[in-house]
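Regression test case RT-17, inverse folding.

Input:
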């Protein structure tokens, strides 16, 4: 079990200048929604963005992190991205939930 602050610090190792938002989806310290917003992502494809973050995070999957909903976007994309997170284990099939308990680094 890990804290959202720890997940944020790990993500910042991959993208130091990013704004990172981490939500512990179940309060269990192993299912997280992570939004990574960075100018650096401009011109990159979504998979390229995720690979940058996963290069650091893959060492923590499946333990201590079991599920990671990762959204990597530019600041412009974040303005229109909406206010939901995806819980991959919610309701058995996965559900979209309202983002709450945001933790932001500014």
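Golden output:
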């Amino acid at each position: 079990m890990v804290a959202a602050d720890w997940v944020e610090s790990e993500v910042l190792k991959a993208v130091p200048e990013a704004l990172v938002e981490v939500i512990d989806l179940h309060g269990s310290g192993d299912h997280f929604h992570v939004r990574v917003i960075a100018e650096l992502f401009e011109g990159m494809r979504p998979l390229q963005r995720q690979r940058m973050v996963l290069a650091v995070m893959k060492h923590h999957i499946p333990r201590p992190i079991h599920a990671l909903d990762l959204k990597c976007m530019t600041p412009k994309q974040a303005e229109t991205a909406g206010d939901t997170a995806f819980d991959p284990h919610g309701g058995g099939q996965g559900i979209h939930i309202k983002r709450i308990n945001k933790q932001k680094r500014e």
